[in-house]
Specification:
This protein starts with 22 loop residues before the first strand and ends with a helix. Helix 15 runs parallel beside helix 17. A 6-stranded mixed beta sheet has the order 6-7-8-3-9-10, with helices on both faces. A 6-stranded mixed beta sheet has the order 16-17-18-13-19-20, sandwiched between helices. By secondary structure, the protein is α/β, with parallel strands linked by helices. Among the domains are: 174 residues, Rossmann fold (3-Layer(aba) Sandwich); 74 residues, no CATH class. The longest helix is centred in the middle third of the chain and has 18 residues.
Length: 562
């Protein structure tokens, strides 16, 4: 016979009712494999989570936030990463001693998890309805007809339109925000007592992010659920948290109510994270050169999909990704382009760099229209407009060393190999990486370091215009601050002009001289950053500003109180 689960020690008091948290983590330590940067991913961590409470766990990548969540779910990869000390009590049962069959019962049934990237967490070859059905079928014996009705009800509960179509859809047929809602519906299928949300809004635009946060709070209250919300975004914390735990290097360095931690931070690490949060108040306006470097006029790009074989059958879907877009970029100016996912921001950027071809319009660089040029004609201009991508890991060749990645561009455009190598060393120094990086592979670097490599590769060609497409959206707040400062320094030193694509209005407020707001392929408003933030004219711009998480929280005031 198997041993009965270890029980939570009782704490009796005649004066006060016994406190029974849903989750009680006591002195938890998770060991890392030999040769890792530190011995433990999580070290001596203790905290509780009550029903109908949202506990936010914040910290940088590598702080141990997600490892703690995976330890709770029993999803650590043994034998390399294991709990070697402490307990995780769930309703009095120690999960560190639970059998694998018991953990399978708990996962999805009593404790559910929403992952950061729904596209990788959802099965791409199963419909949304079948994936929800799988969860219900595993934990119950109800009939198929009743399971289907339950799936439809869940889709309705997360406010997705046309539930019948959604449950018949595959993940790739839904937008990012819709996929995240579908994953929340799946997590709530068995009405779990605890919901773990691991960075569920990081890659979403501000309005979708606001909707998801509101939805999680509504569902938490209606189901009396305890929510463990993992994030690095203090604005999100300000909006939804009841309590906050701050982690650094696997340890809890500060824990308390939202008011205590956000408005009266005590630990230097908490304070340093808050200093890195971009302010929503734009800085003073910089003088902008009257010299115009780039003019985009009446740019149009349309995507068509579906329609069946040879255009027969179903009606084709037409998306106007860019509809008569006009922008100008001045010498050494940073022009921000903001808007929701699908607004056309990245399409505009890729048309400017000629990674895709616009259907019509002009892209005039210093008097030359780049749009009609063929590959050979475009070659002399390629180096002048370079791009920094959102995901540096996906845009860097994993089989090439960093030095070669940076030097390849100049070599391809005719530079002497020795000069290209010298230039690569120079660019690594410029972006703050030491010379040892030259002979290492991309996977040997952190996310922030890989983004620096991406910037170095773009700068190696000595461009005059840098197009940055969401270059800091996936980075920790402190690393984000470093990259933004690096871009600002490079702009001043090299007199670069930049088109800065972002959905983060805090970042836009600090980085951009002017901002263009895009919606459904069109620019609905454009002007100086300070004017847009203080006197936005278009209703959509005001909607974006109102959706910024933690817009009423003032980090500067909190740091003075700390």
């Amino acid at each position: 016979m198997s041993e009965s689960p270890k029980q939570h020690p009782e704490k009796k008091s005649e004066q006060e009712p016994e406190l029974k948290p849903l989750l009680d983590i006591q002195n938890l330590s998770v060991k890392l494999p030999q040769g890792a940067e530190r011995t433990h991913a999580v070290e001596d961590v203790s905290y509780t989570l009550n029903n109908n409470e949202i506990l936010c766990v914040v910290g940088e990548s590598g702080s141990g936030k997600s490892i703690t969540a995976r330890a709770i779910m029993g999803l650590l990869p043994p034998p390399h990463v294991v709990v070697d000390q402490g307990s995780i009590f769930f309703n009095g049962e120690d999960l560190t001693e639970a059998t694998e069959s018991r953990l399978r019962e708990i996962r999805g049934g009593e404790i559910s998890m929403i992952f950061q990237e729904p596209m990788t967490a959802l099965n791409p070859v199963m419909t949304i309805g079948n994936q929800i059905d799988e969860v219900i079928r595993f934990h119950t014996k109800i009939k198929k007809r009743d399971r289907r009705k339950r799936a439809v009800d869940l889709i309705e509960s997360v406010h997705l339109p046309d539930p019948e179509n959604v449950i018949a859809a595959y993940p790739h047929e839904l937008s990012g925000g819709q996929r995240q809602r579908a994953m929340i519906a799946m997590a709530l299928a068995m009405e779990p007592k605890i919901l773990i949300a691991d960075e569920p809004t990081t890659a979403l635009d501000v309005t979708t992010q606001a909707q998801i946060l509101k939805l999680i709070k509504e569902l938490q209250q209606s189901h009396d659920t305890g929510v463990l919300f993992i994030t690095h975004d203090f604005g999100v914390v300000a909006d939804i948290a009841d309590r906050v735990a701050v982690m650094q290097y696997g340890k809890i360095v500060e824990i308390g109510t939202t008011d205590q931690v956000l408005n009266h931070p005590q630990h230097p690490y908490t304070q340093s994270l808050m200093r890195a949060v971009p302010s929503l108040v734009p800085p003073e306006i910089r003088p902008i050169s009257e010299s115009v470097e780039l003019v985009v006029d009446d740019l149009t790009k349309t995507y068509t999909s579906g329609g069946g074989w040879f255009g027969l059958g179903a009606k084709a879907r037409v998306v106007h990704a860019a509809a008569s877009v006009d922008i100008t970029l001045h010498k050494s100016e940073t022009l921000g382009v903001v808007g929701e996912s699908g607004s056309g921001k990245s399409t505009l950027a890729r048309c400017v760099v000629r990674l895709i071809n616009a259907d019509s319009g002009t892209i005039e660089y210093n008097g030359v229209d780049l749009r009609p040029l063929n590959r050979a004609q475009l070659r002399p201009y390629r180096s002048k407009i370079q791009m920094v991508f959102q995901d540096p890991f996906a845009s860097l060749n994993p089989r090439s060393k960093v030095g070669r990645i940076i030097a390849d561009g100049p070599r391809i455009l005719g530079a002497d190999p020795a000069e290209a190598t010298r230039r690569a060393h120079e660019m690594l120094e410029l972006v703050g990486l030491d010379d040892r990086a030259f002979d290492r592979f991309p996977h040997e670097f952190s996310g922030g370091q890989r983004q620096r490599i991406g910037i170095a590769r773009a700068l190696a060609l000595d461009p005059e215009i840098l197009v940055a497409d969401e270059p800091v959206s996936a980075l920790d707040v402190s690393i984000q601050a470093q990259i933004l400062q690096l871009l600002a320094d490079i702009r001043e030193r090299l007199q670069l002009s930049m088109i800065f694509i972002t959905h983060d209005l805090r970042v836009a407020a600090q980085v951009c001289d002017r901002i263009a707001v895009m919606r459904l392929g069109k620019i609905v408003e454009m002007g100086p950053t300070s004017t847009l933030f203080s006197r936005a004219e278009h209703a959509y711009t005001r909607e974006l500003l109102n959706a910024v998480p933690g817009k009423d929280w003032l980090p500067d005031k909190a740091l003075r109180n700390g």
